[in-house]
């Protein structure tokens, strides 16, 4: 079984800038916020630490 799938290319950078500009003009905070980014970074750090140690590592929030 096969399927054909095609999508129009999207300029992701332009989409991000448009979204950010829309947030500024409408007074909304862009998402995800800085807290979300911090959680991502702590998760990535825990992944590297876990790989080095060879066991589970807790992610501090």
Overview of the structural elements:
The chain has helices spanning 12-26, 34-53. The protein is mostly helical. The longest helix has 20 residues, at 34-53. The protein is flat, with a radius of gyration of 19 Å. 0% of the residues are buried. The model has no long low-confidence stretch (mean pLDDT 91).
Sequence stretches where pLDDT stays below 50 over 5 or more residues: none
User: Secondary-structure element order, as H and E?
Assistant: HH
Number of DSSP E strands: 0
Shape: flat
Q: Which structural class is indicated by helix and strand composition?
A: mainly alpha
Largest sheet: none
Oligomer: single chain
Strand content: under 5%
> What fraction, in percent, of the residue positions are helical?
55-70%
- How many H/I helical runs? 2
Rounded to the nearest angstrom, the distance between the terminal CA atoms is: 45 Å
The overall average pLDDT, rounded, is: 91
Rounded to the nearest angstrom, the radius of gyration is 19 Å
